[in-house]
Amino acid sequence: MEADGFVRRRRMTAETTGNDPGVAGASAGAEVRWLGGRFWGVSESIVGSLTPRIGGESEIQTVDFIRSAQDAQTEDSEDYEGLPQGASTSTHMFAGAVAGIMEHCLMFPIDCVKTRMQSLQPDPAARYRNVMDALRRIVATEGVWRPMRGLNATAVGAGPAHALYFASYEKLKKTLSDVIHPGANSHLANGTAGCVATLLHDAVMNPAEVVKQRMQMYNSPYRGVMDCIRAIWHKEGPAAFYRSYTTQLTMNVPFQALHFMTYEYLQELLNPHRQYNPSSHMLSGALAGAIAAAATTPLDVCKTLLNTQECLTLSSLSSCQGPGQGQGQGAHRRITGLAHAFQTVYRLGGLKGFFKGVQARVIYQMPSTAISWSVYEFFKYGLTKHQHNKRRAQHMETEI
Question: Cα-flanking dihedrals φ and ψ of residue 331, to 5°?
Fold first, then answer.
Protein backbone atom coordinates (compact mmCIF):
# COMPACT_ATOMS: atom_id res chain seq x y z
CA MET A 1 0.00 0.00 0.00
CA GLU A 2 2.83 2.36 0.84
CA ALA A 3 4.50 1.69 -2.50
CA ASP A 4 1.21 2.08 -4.42
CA GLY A 5 0.54 5.40 -2.76
CA PHE A 6 4.05 6.55 -3.55
CA VAL A 7 3.62 5.73 -7.26
CA ARG A 8 0.26 7.54 -7.39
CA ARG A 9 1.76 10.67 -5.82
CA ARG A 10 4.62 10.64 -8.34
CA ARG A 11 2.21 10.19 -11.26
CA MET A 12 -0.01 13.05 -10.08
CA THR A 13 3.06 15.26 -9.81
CA ALA A 14 4.17 14.31 -13.33
CA GLU A 15 0.72 15.13 -14.76
CA THR A 16 0.60 18.55 -13.16
CA THR A 17 4.17 19.55 -13.96
CA GLY A 18 4.14 18.93 -17.70
CA ASN A 19 7.03 17.40 -19.60
CA ASP A 20 9.78 18.09 -17.07
CA PRO A 21 12.41 15.32 -17.59
CA GLY A 22 13.31 15.41 -13.90
CA VAL A 23 9.73 14.64 -12.94
CA ALA A 24 9.58 11.87 -15.53
CA GLY A 25 12.74 10.37 -14.07
CA ALA A 26 11.25 10.48 -10.58
CA SER A 27 8.15 8.70 -11.83
CA ALA A 28 10.26 6.01 -13.50
CA GLY A 29 12.25 5.59 -10.32
CA ALA A 30 9.01 5.14 -8.42
CA GLU A 31 8.01 2.30 -10.74
CA VAL A 32 11.33 0.55 -10.14
CA ARG A 33 10.95 0.91 -6.39
CA TRP A 34 7.41 -0.46 -6.58
CA LEU A 35 8.65 -3.56 -8.45
CA GLY A 36 11.41 -3.96 -5.88
CA GLY A 37 8.83 -3.76 -3.11
CA ARG A 38 6.95 -6.69 -4.64
CA PHE A 39 10.13 -8.76 -4.70
CA TRP A 40 10.81 -8.24 -0.98
CA GLY A 41 7.61 -10.12 -0.17
CA VAL A 42 9.05 -13.30 -1.67
CA SER A 43 12.50 -12.81 -0.10
CA GLU A 44 11.07 -12.10 3.35
CA SER A 45 9.50 -15.55 3.70
CA ILE A 46 12.87 -17.20 2.97
CA VAL A 47 14.81 -14.98 5.37
CA GLY A 48 12.12 -15.35 8.01
CA SER A 49 12.51 -19.11 7.90
CA LEU A 50 16.28 -18.82 8.28
CA THR A 51 16.35 -16.37 11.18
CA PRO A 52 15.33 -18.71 14.06
CA ARG A 53 18.03 -21.22 13.08
CA ILE A 54 20.91 -18.78 12.97
CA GLY A 55 22.58 -18.10 16.29
CA GLY A 56 23.76 -14.71 17.38
CA GLU A 57 21.63 -11.75 16.57
CA SER A 58 18.07 -12.85 17.10
CA GLU A 59 16.72 -9.35 17.10
CA ILE A 60 17.28 -7.06 14.14
CA GLN A 61 18.56 -3.65 15.05
CA THR A 62 16.56 -0.97 13.28
CA VAL A 63 17.05 2.61 12.26
CA ASP A 64 14.45 5.16 13.21
CA PHE A 65 12.86 6.42 10.02
CA ILE A 66 10.26 8.60 11.78
CA ARG A 67 10.76 12.19 10.75
CA SER A 68 9.27 15.42 11.96
CA ALA A 69 6.49 17.18 10.08
CA GLN A 70 9.00 19.68 8.66
CA ASP A 71 10.78 16.81 6.79
CA ALA A 72 7.59 15.30 5.36
CA GLN A 73 8.27 16.60 1.85
CA THR A 74 11.55 14.66 1.56
CA GLU A 75 10.51 11.59 3.53
CA ASP A 76 9.97 9.33 0.51
CA SER A 77 13.36 9.93 -1.11
CA GLU A 78 15.34 9.79 2.12
CA ASP A 79 13.51 6.66 3.24
CA TYR A 80 14.52 5.00 -0.02
CA GLU A 81 18.13 6.14 -0.08
CA GLY A 82 19.03 5.81 3.58
CA LEU A 83 20.80 2.45 3.98
CA PRO A 84 19.72 0.69 7.20
CA GLN A 85 22.66 0.13 9.52
CA GLY A 86 21.33 -2.76 11.61
CA ALA A 87 20.93 -5.66 9.19
CA SER A 88 20.60 -9.06 10.86
CA THR A 89 22.97 -11.97 10.35
CA SER A 90 20.33 -13.84 8.35
CA THR A 91 19.97 -10.85 6.03
CA HIS A 92 23.73 -10.71 5.45
CA MET A 93 23.78 -14.44 4.72
CA PHE A 94 20.82 -14.38 2.35
CA ALA A 95 22.03 -11.29 0.49
CA GLY A 96 25.55 -12.73 0.28
CA ALA A 97 24.32 -16.08 -1.06
CA VAL A 98 22.24 -14.44 -3.80
CA ALA A 99 25.11 -12.10 -4.70
CA GLY A 100 27.60 -14.97 -4.91
CA ILE A 101 25.40 -17.18 -7.08
CA MET A 102 24.54 -14.35 -9.47
CA GLU A 103 28.17 -13.21 -9.68
CA HIS A 104 29.52 -16.65 -10.59
CA CYS A 105 26.66 -17.66 -12.89
CA LEU A 106 26.62 -14.45 -14.95
CA MET A 107 30.40 -14.37 -15.40
CA PHE A 108 30.96 -18.11 -15.81
CA PRO A 109 31.80 -18.07 -19.57
CA ILE A 110 34.57 -15.53 -18.95
CA ASP A 111 35.82 -17.65 -16.06
CA CYS A 112 36.03 -20.63 -18.44
CA VAL A 113 38.15 -18.55 -20.85
CA LYS A 114 40.40 -17.40 -17.98
CA THR A 115 41.05 -20.99 -16.91
CA ARG A 116 42.02 -22.03 -20.44
CA MET A 117 44.21 -18.99 -21.09
CA GLN A 118 46.18 -19.74 -17.91
CA SER A 119 47.18 -23.15 -19.29
CA LEU A 120 50.97 -23.44 -19.47
CA GLN A 121 51.02 -26.04 -22.25
CA PRO A 122 47.72 -25.62 -24.11
CA ASP A 123 46.64 -27.86 -26.94
CA PRO A 124 47.22 -26.16 -30.34
CA ALA A 125 43.44 -26.03 -30.80
CA ALA A 126 43.08 -24.20 -27.46
CA ARG A 127 45.48 -21.32 -28.02
CA TYR A 128 43.58 -18.04 -28.13
CA ARG A 129 44.52 -14.48 -29.00
CA ASN A 130 42.15 -12.77 -26.56
CA VAL A 131 38.95 -13.27 -24.59
CA MET A 132 36.52 -12.72 -27.47
CA ASP A 133 38.52 -14.95 -29.79
CA ALA A 134 38.43 -17.68 -27.14
CA LEU A 135 34.67 -17.43 -26.62
CA ARG A 136 33.99 -17.42 -30.35
CA ARG A 137 36.17 -20.47 -31.02
CA ILE A 138 34.89 -22.45 -28.03
CA VAL A 139 31.27 -21.95 -29.12
CA ALA A 140 32.05 -22.64 -32.79
CA THR A 141 34.08 -25.81 -32.26
CA GLU A 142 32.71 -27.28 -29.01
CA GLY A 143 29.12 -26.13 -28.86
CA VAL A 144 27.19 -23.19 -27.45
CA TRP A 145 26.89 -24.71 -23.97
CA ARG A 146 30.57 -25.66 -23.63
CA PRO A 147 31.59 -22.46 -21.76
CA MET A 148 28.97 -23.32 -19.12
CA ARG A 149 30.31 -26.78 -18.14
CA GLY A 150 30.81 -26.97 -14.38
CA LEU A 151 28.34 -24.17 -13.64
CA ASN A 152 26.17 -26.34 -11.38
CA ALA A 153 29.13 -27.21 -9.15
CA THR A 154 30.02 -23.53 -8.85
CA ALA A 155 26.45 -22.48 -8.06
CA VAL A 156 26.14 -25.11 -5.31
CA GLY A 157 29.41 -23.98 -3.72
CA ALA A 158 28.94 -20.23 -4.21
CA GLY A 159 25.73 -19.94 -2.17
CA PRO A 160 26.97 -21.14 1.25
CA ALA A 161 30.51 -19.83 0.61
CA HIS A 162 29.35 -16.25 0.02
CA ALA A 163 26.77 -16.44 2.80
CA LEU A 164 29.58 -17.13 5.29
CA TYR A 165 31.84 -14.66 3.50
CA PHE A 166 29.62 -11.58 3.77
CA ALA A 167 28.12 -12.41 7.17
CA SER A 168 31.52 -12.90 8.81
CA TYR A 169 32.94 -9.83 7.07
CA GLU A 170 30.13 -7.55 8.27
CA LYS A 171 30.30 -8.88 11.84
CA LEU A 172 34.09 -8.66 12.13
CA LYS A 173 34.29 -5.28 10.39
CA LYS A 174 31.92 -3.72 12.92
CA THR A 175 33.55 -5.41 15.91
CA LEU A 176 37.11 -4.48 14.90
CA SER A 177 36.17 -0.95 13.84
CA ASP A 178 34.64 -0.31 17.26
CA VAL A 179 37.94 -1.40 18.85
CA ILE A 180 40.42 0.21 16.45
CA HIS A 181 38.60 3.39 15.48
CA PRO A 182 35.30 3.81 17.36
CA GLY A 183 32.62 5.66 15.45
CA ALA A 184 34.55 5.73 12.16
CA ASN A 185 35.67 3.52 9.31
CA SER A 186 38.94 1.64 9.82
CA HIS A 187 40.85 0.35 6.79
CA LEU A 188 42.79 -2.03 9.03
CA ALA A 189 39.52 -3.49 10.32
CA ASN A 190 38.18 -3.83 6.77
CA GLY A 191 41.29 -5.65 5.57
CA THR A 192 41.47 -7.94 8.60
CA ALA A 193 37.76 -8.81 8.37
CA GLY A 194 38.19 -9.58 4.68
CA CYS A 195 41.10 -11.94 5.40
CA VAL A 196 39.18 -13.90 8.04
CA ALA A 197 36.08 -14.07 5.83
CA THR A 198 38.27 -15.53 3.08
CA LEU A 199 39.27 -18.49 5.28
CA LEU A 200 35.63 -19.53 5.62
CA HIS A 201 34.75 -18.80 2.00
CA ASP A 202 37.63 -20.81 0.53
CA ALA A 203 37.07 -23.78 2.85
CA VAL A 204 33.63 -24.21 1.28
CA MET A 205 34.47 -23.10 -2.27
CA ASN A 206 37.76 -24.91 -2.93
CA PRO A 207 36.30 -28.35 -3.85
CA ALA A 208 33.85 -26.66 -6.24
CA GLU A 209 36.76 -24.76 -7.81
CA VAL A 210 38.68 -27.99 -8.44
CA VAL A 211 35.70 -29.63 -10.15
CA LYS A 212 34.81 -26.50 -12.11
CA GLN A 213 38.29 -25.91 -13.49
CA ARG A 214 38.82 -29.53 -14.53
CA MET A 215 35.58 -29.44 -16.47
CA GLN A 216 36.52 -26.12 -18.08
CA MET A 217 39.77 -27.39 -19.60
CA TYR A 218 40.00 -28.26 -23.28
CA ASN A 219 39.15 -31.91 -24.00
CA SER A 220 38.01 -32.46 -20.42
CA PRO A 221 37.38 -36.23 -20.07
CA TYR A 222 34.54 -35.94 -17.55
CA ARG A 223 30.90 -36.51 -18.55
CA GLY A 224 29.52 -34.39 -15.74
CA VAL A 225 30.07 -33.01 -12.25
CA MET A 226 29.45 -36.30 -10.42
CA ASP A 227 31.69 -38.19 -12.84
CA CYS A 228 34.45 -35.66 -12.19
CA ILE A 229 34.04 -35.93 -8.41
CA ARG A 230 34.14 -39.75 -8.51
CA ALA A 231 37.21 -39.80 -10.77
CA ILE A 232 39.16 -37.38 -8.58
CA TRP A 233 38.17 -39.24 -5.40
CA HIS A 234 39.19 -42.68 -6.73
CA LYS A 235 42.37 -41.70 -8.59
CA GLU A 236 43.80 -38.96 -6.36
CA GLY A 237 41.98 -39.25 -3.05
CA PRO A 238 39.94 -36.70 -1.10
CA ALA A 239 43.03 -34.56 -0.48
CA ALA A 240 42.95 -33.58 -4.17
CA PHE A 241 39.95 -31.35 -3.50
CA TYR A 242 42.11 -29.23 -1.17
CA ARG A 243 45.47 -29.51 -2.94
CA SER A 244 45.28 -25.83 -3.91
CA TYR A 245 43.76 -24.61 -0.63
CA THR A 246 46.95 -23.08 0.75
CA THR A 247 47.64 -21.48 -2.64
CA GLN A 248 44.06 -20.26 -2.77
CA LEU A 249 44.47 -18.67 0.65
CA THR A 250 47.88 -17.25 -0.27
CA MET A 251 46.22 -15.60 -3.26
CA ASN A 252 42.84 -14.68 -1.78
CA VAL A 253 44.01 -13.27 1.55
CA PRO A 254 45.94 -10.39 -0.10
CA PHE A 255 43.31 -10.21 -2.86
CA GLN A 256 40.42 -9.79 -0.43
CA ALA A 257 42.36 -7.48 1.89
CA LEU A 258 43.15 -5.20 -1.06
CA HIS A 259 39.65 -5.65 -2.47
CA PHE A 260 37.80 -4.68 0.72
CA MET A 261 40.15 -1.84 1.61
CA THR A 262 39.84 -0.36 -1.89
CA TYR A 263 36.06 -0.78 -1.91
CA GLU A 264 35.58 0.88 1.46
CA TYR A 265 38.01 3.68 0.54
CA LEU A 266 36.14 4.37 -2.70
CA GLN A 267 32.87 4.34 -0.80
CA GLU A 268 34.24 7.06 1.47
CA LEU A 269 34.99 9.16 -1.62
CA LEU A 270 31.90 8.38 -3.72
CA ASN A 271 29.32 7.71 -1.02
CA PRO A 272 30.48 9.39 2.21
CA HIS A 273 27.03 9.24 3.85
CA ARG A 274 26.80 5.49 3.15
CA GLN A 275 23.38 5.72 1.53
CA TYR A 276 22.01 3.06 -0.78
CA ASN A 277 23.59 4.22 -4.05
CA PRO A 278 23.71 1.52 -6.77
CA SER A 279 26.08 3.42 -9.05
CA SER A 280 28.67 3.96 -6.30
CA HIS A 281 28.45 0.33 -5.18
CA MET A 282 28.93 -0.87 -8.76
CA LEU A 283 31.83 1.47 -9.60
CA SER A 284 33.63 0.86 -6.31
CA GLY A 285 33.24 -2.90 -6.68
CA ALA A 286 34.51 -2.89 -10.28
CA LEU A 287 37.63 -0.81 -9.53
CA ALA A 288 38.42 -2.74 -6.35
CA GLY A 289 38.11 -6.05 -8.21
CA ALA A 290 40.30 -4.92 -11.11
CA ILE A 291 43.13 -3.69 -8.87
CA ALA A 292 43.12 -6.79 -6.67
CA ALA A 293 42.85 -9.15 -9.67
CA ALA A 294 45.82 -7.67 -11.53
CA ALA A 295 48.01 -7.72 -8.41
CA THR A 296 47.34 -11.38 -7.60
CA THR A 297 47.40 -12.93 -11.10
CA PRO A 298 50.69 -14.86 -10.53
CA LEU A 299 49.14 -16.71 -7.62
CA ASP A 300 46.00 -17.40 -9.62
CA VAL A 301 48.10 -19.02 -12.38
CA CYS A 302 49.67 -21.32 -9.78
CA LYS A 303 46.28 -22.15 -8.31
CA THR A 304 44.91 -23.10 -11.74
CA LEU A 305 47.91 -25.37 -12.32
CA LEU A 306 47.38 -27.10 -8.97
CA ASN A 307 43.67 -27.57 -9.61
CA THR A 308 43.88 -28.83 -13.18
CA GLN A 309 47.13 -30.87 -13.10
CA GLU A 310 47.42 -30.29 -16.86
CA CYS A 311 48.43 -33.44 -18.74
CA LEU A 312 50.62 -31.64 -21.27
CA THR A 313 52.39 -29.76 -18.49
CA LEU A 314 53.08 -32.98 -16.60
CA SER A 315 54.35 -34.56 -19.82
CA SER A 316 56.68 -31.60 -20.36
CA LEU A 317 58.04 -32.05 -16.85
CA SER A 318 58.59 -35.74 -17.57
CA SER A 319 60.59 -35.02 -20.73
CA CYS A 320 62.75 -32.58 -18.77
CA GLN A 321 63.88 -35.28 -16.31
CA GLY A 322 67.37 -36.71 -16.36
CA PRO A 323 68.33 -39.68 -18.52
CA GLY A 324 68.13 -42.03 -15.55
CA GLN A 325 64.40 -41.42 -15.12
CA GLY A 326 61.95 -42.91 -17.57
CA GLN A 327 59.07 -41.05 -19.06
CA GLY A 328 56.66 -43.61 -17.71
CA GLN A 329 57.77 -42.89 -14.18
CA GLY A 330 57.59 -39.16 -14.69
CA ALA A 331 54.15 -39.35 -16.22
CA HIS A 332 52.74 -39.99 -12.74
CA ARG A 333 54.23 -36.82 -11.28
CA ARG A 334 51.88 -34.25 -9.84
CA ILE A 335 52.22 -30.61 -8.94
CA THR A 336 52.11 -30.93 -5.17
CA GLY A 337 52.36 -27.47 -3.63
CA LEU A 338 52.78 -23.73 -4.10
CA ALA A 339 56.60 -23.84 -4.33
CA HIS A 340 56.44 -26.65 -6.89
CA ALA A 341 53.81 -24.73 -8.87
CA PHE A 342 55.99 -21.58 -8.90
CA GLN A 343 58.98 -23.58 -10.14
CA THR A 344 56.89 -25.21 -12.87
CA VAL A 345 55.40 -21.94 -14.11
CA TYR A 346 58.82 -20.30 -14.24
CA ARG A 347 60.45 -23.31 -15.95
CA LEU A 348 57.83 -23.59 -18.67
CA GLY A 349 56.74 -19.97 -19.11
CA GLY A 350 59.36 -17.70 -17.58
CA LEU A 351 58.28 -14.46 -15.91
CA LYS A 352 55.61 -13.93 -18.56
CA GLY A 353 54.05 -17.25 -17.51
CA PHE A 354 52.98 -15.74 -14.18
CA PHE A 355 50.72 -13.28 -16.01
CA LYS A 356 49.05 -15.68 -18.41
CA GLY A 357 45.37 -14.81 -18.62
CA VAL A 358 45.73 -11.48 -16.79
CA GLN A 359 43.48 -9.79 -19.34
CA ALA A 360 40.77 -12.40 -18.90
CA ARG A 361 41.15 -12.28 -15.11
CA VAL A 362 40.67 -8.50 -14.95
CA ILE A 363 37.81 -8.62 -17.46
CA TYR A 364 36.21 -11.32 -15.30
CA GLN A 365 36.77 -9.65 -11.93
CA MET A 366 35.60 -6.13 -12.79
CA PRO A 367 31.97 -6.98 -13.62
CA SER A 368 32.06 -9.89 -11.19
CA THR A 369 32.81 -7.76 -8.13
CA ALA A 370 30.53 -4.99 -9.43
CA ILE A 371 27.64 -7.48 -9.66
CA SER A 372 28.47 -9.00 -6.28
CA TRP A 373 28.55 -5.70 -4.36
CA SER A 374 25.56 -4.10 -6.10
CA VAL A 375 23.37 -7.20 -5.65
CA TYR A 376 24.52 -7.65 -2.04
CA GLU A 377 23.85 -4.02 -1.08
CA PHE A 378 20.51 -4.12 -2.94
CA PHE A 379 19.24 -7.14 -1.02
CA LYS A 380 20.72 -6.01 2.29
CA TYR A 381 18.99 -2.65 2.04
CA GLY A 382 15.66 -3.99 0.80
CA LEU A 383 15.33 -6.90 3.20
CA THR A 384 16.37 -4.85 6.21
CA LYS A 385 13.96 -2.05 5.40
CA HIS A 386 11.12 -4.46 4.73
CA GLN A 387 11.68 -6.21 8.06
CA HIS A 388 11.90 -2.86 9.81
CA ASN A 389 8.62 -1.65 8.28
CA LYS A 390 6.90 -4.90 9.26
CA ARG A 391 8.11 -4.63 12.85
CA ARG A 392 7.05 -0.99 13.00
CA ALA A 393 3.57 -1.89 11.70
CA GLN A 394 3.27 -4.66 14.30
CA HIS A 395 4.35 -2.24 17.02
CA MET A 396 1.75 0.30 15.94
CA GLU A 397 -0.96 -2.41 15.94
CA THR A 398 -0.10 -3.43 19.49
CA GLU A 399 -0.27 0.20 20.64
CA ILE A 400 -3.70 0.62 19.05
Answer: -65, -20
